[in-house]
Amino acid sequence: MKKKMDLEKDSPAIAREKLEYFKKLFPEAMSEGKVDVDALRRSLGENVVSNDERYNLDWAGKAEAFKALQASTTATLAPCPEESVDFDKTGNVFIEGENLEVLKVLQKAYYGKIKMIYIDPPYNTGSDSFIYPDRFQESKEEYLKRIEEKDEEGYLLKEGLFRKNSKENGQYHSNWLSMMYPRLFLARNLLRDDGVIFISIDDNEVHNLRLLMNEVFGEENFVANAVWQKRTSPDARLKVSSGHEYVLIYAKDIAFIEESINLLPLTAEQKEAYKNPDNDPRGPWVSSDYTAQGYRPNQMYPITTPGGAVFTPPAGVCWKNVESVFKDLVKDKRVWFGKDGNAFPRRKTYLSETEGRTVWTWWSNKEVGHTQEASKELKDLFNLANAFDNPKPVRLIDRILQLATKKDSIILDFFSGSGTTAAAVLELNKSDGGTRKFICVQLPEKTDDTTEAGKAGYKTIAEIGEERIRRVIKRIKEDAKNNPNLFAKDKSDLDFGVKVFKLKNSNFKIWRGDVVDTAEDLENQMDLLKDPVKPEAREQNLLWELLLKSGYDLNTKITDRKSGNAEFYSIADGKIVIILSKADEKWLQEIVKLKPQKVICLDNIFEANDQLKTNTALQMKDAEIEFRTI
Q1: What does 159-192 look like in DSSP terms, one character per residue?
Q2: pLDDT the model gives residue 594
Q3: Helical ranges in 26-135 per DSSP H
Q4: Which domains are delineated in the chain?
Q5: Which position has the higher pLDDT, 60 or 133?
Q6: Single pTM value for the model
Q7: Confidence band (pLDDT; 50, 70, 90) for 6?
Q8: Residues 577, 590: Cα–Cα separation, whole Å
Q9: How far apart are CA 570 and CA 560, in angstroms?
Q10: Looking at the DSSP assignment, which residues form a beta bridge with residue 35?
Q11: Burial label, 505 (beta-carbon count in 10 A; 0-12, 13-18, 19+)
Q12: Which residues of 11-21 are buried (b: 16+ CB within 10 A; e: fewer)?
């Protein structure tokens, strides 16, 4: 997608162009329109201590947050077909795993592909438990041991991975900012140029989040701060009861705002306002005031109605258009003077010409739902009271989807919780025939055994969200069978499935330079890596890891091809070939004839036959095929 630009009337301002380009690369290094050199150095991984007085957002632990952002990951995603619905056909994805690591894993495959992101992060109320980078002094072994602390059934312990951020903590706000910063930074990378992010938040951190978003996304890319009326009545136990939350909205690039935000469809009530009292052949219409605020001499003419009445603009206003434009409107019968032809002039707007309505920043619960409605949605699905704390209603996410997505958009939610975003995407596709795809990410945070969900056997929040998606899909498929007229198009064309992945350690052994102190250590490391694949690695897991690390997304077409004992995988209609099992010379020559762009294989498929490996590499080179062995 190319950025729209006006024709420059003078020669390009080189410094200005460079600054604009710099802002897109490093929005976090800008302060009041100028480059913040210290912020840039921090962004590039340097430790910076500065006492310069300037306008910026700083907090205890910000340098550590940069480290968390810049730390690379070797993690991967393992497919779970047994927990999925139509794994081989669907484009919808649910990922169980820590979202910072997942965002890093997705960077190469989804960079610049996401149209809309919605997140509902911890609000930092004082009772939240979440991850924040506060232990950089520990060794890698200590860190890995801590984040892998599990109970006897294999579920993550809050004491290991999550910490409660109490308001008594001296770094209460800093911890929350340190948690949010790297995730938002990585999320921005995934957005398309016309992408938009929506973040639910309440009064505890809305002020800090606005400053944080200004730094990560750039102040100029702020779109709006919508107020959602989340309750239907005040809490009688309180003198002052909060009835709202916020939805903070930022564009990836405000220059694309026309493509970023859609008009909303008219409501049934709004359509009812369109009438046709004069039997206009263009159909129903509404009228609007024909005056504008201010004084413009060429818009101060008298208007004579068909009935002979004469009107001039009231004090403080003028007509909306100059007289020549007004006469054209009258000639086209687009001005309404009332049934008797003597009323004050009003301009007609036709329903057939109305593309939609502009959204207000006030989102009433009548239009987008409320928390009680959200709880009922879950209760109806699970037959459990209070299955999840503070869920969002489907109608709220539906509003966001209609504002910021096209029918074929990819939507990301990396704090997916109870799975409302996935449910909303499925329901909207059902109603308008869209092919939107969701990627939902949720940490396997352990549920409390005393809750209804815990008693029902749901061990983690991720299990609840995943099961909700499956139940929504089941309900929609039943609707398709019983009420086919509910669907926007042939139900056979719609995607009602989900493929489940789980964040896992790499299937490949990693070189550990940090444990090599002696020649013996070096020799042990080299022996360890003679076979780079971990003994427990499964072939399908290896395949998906190589796909992701080659930049292919989780919906890439995979074809399994076999001939005798030989097997390989053709990726994206033959662009890449991946070989994970033994292949003889004849089979390798057949692959060369297919002329893929790249061939990736495990080194051990040659079974120490260096001549075969060398000949294969030469054949690939001659055929202009990139050849890599692992």
Answers
A1: HHH-EE--TTSTTHHHHHHHHHHHHHHHHHHHEE
A2: 86
A3: 37-43, 62-70, 99-110
A4: 71-136+179-265+359-502 (3.40.50.150), 271-350 (no CATH), 513-629 (no CATH)
A5: 60
A6: 0.84
A7: very low
A8: 12
A9: 6
A10: 30
A11: middle
A12: eeeeeeeeeee
